Amino acid sequence: MMPEIPPHSAASGKQPTAGHPQADLDSSTAPRLNFASDNVTPACPEVMAALIEANQGSVPSYGEDELTGALNQRFSEVFETETVAFPIVTGTAANAVGLSAMTPGWGGVLCDQSAHINVDEGGAPEFLTSGSKLTGLPSPDGRMSPDALQEALALNREKGVLAPPFKVLSLTQATEWGTVYEPAELKVLTATAHGHGLATHMDGARLSNAIAHLNCTPAETTSQAGVDMLVFGGTKNGAMAAEAILFFLNERTRPMVAAMPHLLKRSGHLWSKERFMSAQLLALLKDDLWLRNGRHANAMAQRLLQGLLHHPAAHLPFNVQGNEVFVVLPDPTLARLEKDGYRFYRFPTPPGVPGTLVRFVTSFYTRPQDVDALLAATFAP
Amino acid sequence: MMPEIPPHSAASGKQPTAGHPQADLDSSTAPRLNFASDNVTPACPEVMAALIEANQGSVPSYGEDELTGALNQRFSEVFETETVAFPIVTGTAANAVGLSAMTPGWGGVLCDQSAHINVDEGGAPEFLTSGSKLTGLPSPDGRMSPDALQEALALNREKGVLAPPFKVLSLTQATEWGTVYEPAELKVLTATAHGHGLATHMDGARLSNAIAHLNCTPAETTSQAGVDMLVFGGTKNGAMAAEAILFFLNERTRPMVAAMPHLLKRSGHLWSKERFMSAQLLALLKDDLWLRNGRHANAMAQRLLQGLLHHPAAHLPFNVQGNEVFVVLPDPTLARLEKDGYRFYRFPTPPGVPGTLVRFVTSFYTRPQDVDALLAATFAP
Amino acid sequence: MMPEIPPHSAASGKQPTAGHPQADLDSSTAPRLNFASDNVTPACPEVMAALIEANQGSVPSYGEDELTGALNQRFSEVFETETVAFPIVTGTAANAVGLSAMTPGWGGVLCDQSAHINVDEGGAPEFLTSGSKLTGLPSPDGRMSPDALQEALALNREKGVLAPPFKVLSLTQATEWGTVYEPAELKVLTATAHGHGLATHMDGARLSNAIAHLNCTPAETTSQAGVDMLVFGGTKNGAMAAEAILFFLNERTRPMVAAMPHLLKRSGHLWSKERFMSAQLLALLKDDLWLRNGRHANAMAQRLLQGLLHHPAAHLPFNVQGNEVFVVLPDPTLARLEKDGYRFYRFPTPPGVPGTLVRFVTSFYTRPQDVDALLAATFAP
Amino acid sequence: MMPEIPPHSAASGKQPTAGHPQADLDSSTAPRLNFASDNVTPACPEVMAALIEANQGSVPSYGEDELTGALNQRFSEVFETETVAFPIVTGTAANAVGLSAMTPGWGGVLCDQSAHINVDEGGAPEFLTSGSKLTGLPSPDGRMSPDALQEALALNREKGVLAPPFKVLSLTQATEWGTVYEPAELKVLTATAHGHGLATHMDGARLSNAIAHLNCTPAETTSQAGVDMLVFGGTKNGAMAAEAILFFLNERTRPMVAAMPHLLKRSGHLWSKERFMSAQLLALLKDDLWLRNGRHANAMAQRLLQGLLHHPAAHLPFNVQGNEVFVVLPDPTLARLEKDGYRFYRFPTPPGVPGTLVRFVTSFYTRPQDVDALLAATFAP
C-alpha cells in the first residue's frame, strides 16, 4: 500500500517555495510518464509566446538585434554584477565553447568525476577546447571536496610540463547526483582555484533547482561565490532551445569575452537569427519565470521523494536537493514501470544493493498527479 | 527618372515561375528596407505554425522523436534517392560538421575561392574538421571550371605528403556571386572528383534559388548530379533556425553517416529537443514551401535587376540567377540609400569601375513594393 | 649495515638473463648518480657508430633512403609478422601520432589510469588525435583487469552518443609501475577489445625490459598477443632519439598505415634526413642490442631490489619486474641521497606508509658499482 | 658548348662573400648529383663532432642540460637582442608549433601564397594551431608587397566575425622562389603588421642564404627588422636534424614564450635527450659556421646561374639571390639529366614558356666540380 503523501513537504532542512501553478501547455489530458530527463519537455507557454512575438519584421542578424542587445543588462541585474551574455543553443555547446574561451588547448580542466562535461558530452570539451585534458576527481555525491582540490593542484604543479597545467575549475550546481553546494562551500573552492591562477566555471544546467533548494539569490551562489563564468541553463527549464554563456566581468574574464564571438562562429554556434534565442532567455528571466519553474520542479521531486521514503525496497543513495531523484528499486518494479509507459534512466548500481539505480527527473512540466501516479505504480503489488 | 518595370520579367534566358502570394507575416505595414541578407528575415508563417504544433507533450530527446523520425523518408522523396538527414542549426555548422564526416583532418577540401566555407565561416571548416586545409580556386563568377579542377588535382597528387590530399570537392549552388551551375556542369565536376577518390559536398544554403532558376527537380541538380552530401538550407528560406545535412546513401557516404551522431554531439550540435528543428524542416518541405519561397525570392531579384538595367551608372558584374543582385553603384547613391534606412553589404570593387560593389538580397519576405521603393530610391536625383 | 648482495639475483620467479658487459661509453670515471629516468643517459656506442656511418653522401629525404627502406623487413623478422614501421623522434609523439591513426577524434581510448598517455604526455594524445577522450581505469599495479575492461566497455555502449565510443585499448608493457603482463593476460584483454571493435595499442617504451622479465620472444608479448600497433621504444634503451610506430598488418591496421605519412607530416614529425633515425633503430635491432640492453637494465634493477629488501625502513609496493624500482624510504634518507647528488623522482605516497614513494630507474648505462654505491648511501646511518 | 665560368661571380648587385673551403665529409669521391633540396645532405663535420662530444654521461632530460642552457645566451648574442630559443627537430614543426604560440586557433595567419607554411607542410600549421586559417597573398616572386598587405588587413577587418582575425604576419627569408627581402622592405611590412595588432613570424629555413646575399648582420634582417619570432633553420644548412624557434623578447612575445614548453610537449616535440639538438645548434653558431655554410651555398648557386645565363634555351623567372636556382629548361634536356642521375624538382611552368620549370638547390655540401658537371650535362647536345 502506498502511504498518503503530504503535498510539497521537504526532505531536506530547507522548505522549498511552493511551485507556481503551471498553465496548461497542451490540450492533451494524457498522463505525463516521461521522467527520463527534463529535456523531454516542450517549451513552456511564456517562451512560446515570446518566440511568436519576436517573429516580426526584418532585424539585423548575428546578434545585432534589439532583443540580444537587452540580454547583458538583464543578466547583470539578475546576477548583480556586470555580465556579458552569449546565447547558445545546447548545454554541451555552452559548456564546451565556454571552456574554449577559458583555457588554451594545452591547459587542463579540473572537475568532479561525475561532471556532465566529463562523462556526458561526447568529448565536446576536449574537442572544442582543442585538446584540453579533463581531470575528474572522485567524490561521494558529486561535490568536490576542498582537500581533493588542493591535492590535485599540488600534484599538477609537480608534474610540470608532463601534465597540462590546470587553467579552469569546473563546478556543477546542482550536481549530476542532484545535490547542491552551499555558497560557503563554493567560496572555498573558487578561492583556492583563483589562488592557483585558475578561472572558475559553473555548469548551471540546473541552477534554478539549486537556487530553489538554497532559497538564496541567484548572485549568492554564482557571481558572489567566486564564479567567473556561468552556463545558464534554459532548455531543461522551459526553453525550446536556449542556454547562455555568462561572463561576470573581471580581469580574468575580459580577454575571454573578447574571444567569444570568434569561438562561437568557428564552432558553428553563431545564429544568424539570434533574436529567437534571446527572446527565449528574456522570457525565462521575466518575472523570475526560470526560478518559479525551478521551484516547481523541486517541489515535484520532493513529492516523489516523500513517497519513496515509505517504499520498503527503495534505497536512496543521495540527498534529493534539486529535481533529480536517484533511487535503487527492485528490478521487477522497474520492469513493470517501463511496461506501463514510464521512462527513466538506469545507472551503474553501487555494489551490495539489490535492484538497480535509476533516476527520475521532474520539471516545470510535471504535475502533482503525475508524481502520484508514478508513486502508485511503484507501490503496486 | 526611374523606368516602369514589368513585373516578374526575367533577365536570364529562363522564365522563373512567379512567386506565390506570401501571407502577411506581421501586422506592421512598415517598408522592408533590409536587403543585407536573407537571414534578416523572420520565420515564415508556416514554420511558426509548425513550431507551435510541435510544442505538445513530452517526447524523447536527441532525435528519438517522431518528427525527426519522419525526416529521412521525406527528404528521400524530395531528392529521389535514399537519404539520411541530420538537422543542424546554422549553415556554418552544417557545412563544417558535415565536412568533418567527409575528410579526416589531414585531408584537403577543394572549393571555389569565393566559397562561403572559404571566406565567410570564421574558420569553422578548418576547426571542426581538425585542420583540413581548404584550397580555393579562382574563377570568374563563383563557378569552378573543369580545367581548374583537373589542374588542382594533378598538382595535389604531385605534392605527395607535402600537401594534404584532397578528400572533398565542395560546390556551392547557387554560388556566392548569385550564379547557378547547370546540372551538366555539375556532373562533369563531380565525376572528375569521384574519379580521383574525392567525395562531393554541395553547399545548398540557396539551393531553392538555384532550382527556381533551373526550373528543374531538386534531384536533378543534387543527387542525380553526383552530389554525395548536400547542405539543405532552411534559415535563409523561411526557417527560424534549421538546416539539414543530407547524405545520399552510397558506398562513399555510408561510413560518414555512421560517424555523424558523434560528430554532432562533440561539436555541441545535438539538440535535446530536436523535434523543434525537425518541425521546421518538415514545414518547409510540405507542399514545396521551400521551392515556392525560392521562386518568390528569385522573382523579386529579377524585378530589382530589371530596374537596375535601366540605371545609367549601374554596373552588374554577374548574371543574376538567384536571389542576389550584385551591382556597382555610385557612392553618393549608396550613401543616400543608407541614410534612407536601406541595408546592404559592400564588397571589394573590381578595379577601374567607378563606385562600389554592393549586394542586395531578396527573400520570401520581400514584397514587390519593397523592390519598387528601393529602385525609386536608387534612381532618385 | 648493508648486507652483501649476490650479483644478478632475481626477486621474481624468473631468472633474468645476465646483462651483457657494456662497453665504456665515456672516458669519465665519475659515479653515475642519476636514477631519475632512463632518458638521462647518452646514446650507447653502437648507436653512435651507426650515426657516424650513416653520415655519408646525399640521399633522398623524407624516408626514401635505403636505411629507412630496410626497417620494415627487419622489424617484420623481429616480430614474426608483416610489419610497417614509422620512425619518430619521441615516445610521446609515437604514442599520440600513432593513436591518431587508430581513432577518429570522436572516438575514445581506454587505458590504465597510470598510463603514460594518460598522465605524463602533457595532453599530447588528446591534442594529436583531435580530441579523443582518454578513460583511465584504476588498477592496483598498472595492469588492467579483464573485469574492469568488460565493465568499461558495457558502460560505454550504454552511454550511446553521450560518450565517445571506445576505438582503442591501450596497454603498457612494462607498465608504469614497473610490472609486466603475462602474454596470456594480454591475450584475454586484446581478444575482448577486438570483440568489441577496438584496435589495440601497446606502449612499449620499456618493452625490452618486459621481454627480459618474461624471457620470451618479442613476438610472444606483442604481435602474437593480439597487439595491432606497438610503440617500439628506443630512446630510453640506448638511442639518441628514436622510437618506432609499428603496425602489424591486418584488416584493422591497413587503413591506419595509409594515413600515417600524412599524420606524421602534419604534426611536424616527418624528418627530412630520416636516415638518421632509421640508423639508430637498425643499430638497436642488430645482434639484439635492444634486448641485451634491456636485460642489463633489469639485472641492475634486481641488484638494487635485493639490497633494498634488506632495508629495515623500505617498503616496496610493487613487484619489480622491469627496470624501475618503486620504494618508500624515510624522508631523511631521501634528503641525504639528494645531497649526495643522487637523482630520482618522488610520487604520491600511499596513505599510512611513513616516508615518501620514490622511483629509481636503471638502464643499459647503469653499472653494478653504481647500484652498490646507491645502496650503500641508502643504508648509511 | 658550355662557356667558361668565372668562379664566384655574382648575378645580383651584391658580391657574395666567397664560400669557405668545405672539409671533405665523406671518403667517397662520387659525384654529388642530388640538387633536389638542401635536405638531401649529410650533417656537416662540425655538427657530427659536436654530437659525439655531447654523448658523455648522464644529464638531466627535457632541456635541463647545460648545452640547452647555453642556447639563449648564444642566440641573444647573434641576434643582438634578448632571445629565448626552443630547439625543435623539423622545419615544419618549427613553423607550426611556433605559430601555435602566436595565434589562437580562431585567429588567422597572413603569408605569401608561395610560403612553405601554405603549400608544403601538409597542413601542419592548420593542424597544430588548432585550425588557424592561412591566407596566402599572390605576389610575383614570393615577396609580399606593402599594398597587398594593407588591402588584406582592411578586408579582414571589414569581415568581422565572418573571417578569422589576422593575428600573425608570416614572411619567408629567403623566399620560396629564392629571392630575398631587403631589411627596409621587411621593416615596412612588420611595422604595418604591428600597427594592426599582428605579431610577425619569419620562416628562416634559408636565413643564412639571405644574410649571405644581403651581406648584413643576422640582426639587421631579423630582430632589427621587426621580426618577433624567427625559425632558425639548421637541418638544410648542416645539421643532422635541428631547428630553433627563437622569440625576440618584447611585450608581444613574452606570453608566447610562457606557452612554448607546453606546446612542445603536447605536440610530441619535447626531446628527452635534448642535449643532442642543442649541441647541433651550438656547433652551427660556433665561429659563424652557419653563415659560412650559407655563403658557400650561395656561391655555388651563383656559379650555376652564371653558366645557365649562357644557355640558349634557359629561362630564369626569378632573381637568384639565395641557394635556389629556378630555371625553365627543355624537356629533353631534363630527361637526359635525370637519366644521368641528377635529381631536382619540377614546378608548374608559367604558360607560354616552352619546357618545364625546375629547381636546383645548392648547399654547404655542393662542390664547384659538382656544379660544373651539372652545367656540362645541361649543355650537352
UniProtKB/TrEMBL annotation, chains A, B, C, D:
Top-level taxon of origin: Bacteria
Record keyword Hydrolase present: no
Keyword Magnesium: no
Single GO biological process annotation from the record: amino acid metabolic process
Annotated SUPFAM superfamilies: PLP-dependent transferases
Boundaries of every Aromatic amino acid beta-eliminating lyase/threonine aldolase domain copy: 35-328
Chain positions covered by the region annotation Disordered: 1-37
Gene3D superfamilies found in the cross-reference section: Aspartate Aminotransferase, domain 1, Type I PLP-dependent aspartate aminotransferase-like (Major domain)
Alphabetized UniProt keyword annotations: Pyridoxal phosphate
Cofactor(s) recorded in Swiss-Prot or TrEMBL: pyridoxal 5'-phosphate
Compositional bias (Polar residues): 25-37
A Pfam cross-reference name: Beta_elim_lyase
Positions of transmembrane segments: none
Example GO molecular function: lyase activity
Family listed: Belongs to the threonine aldolase family.
Quaternary state and interactors: Homotetramer.
Name of this chain's protein: Low specificity L-threonine aldolase
Organism this protein belongs to: Oecophyllibacter saccharovorans
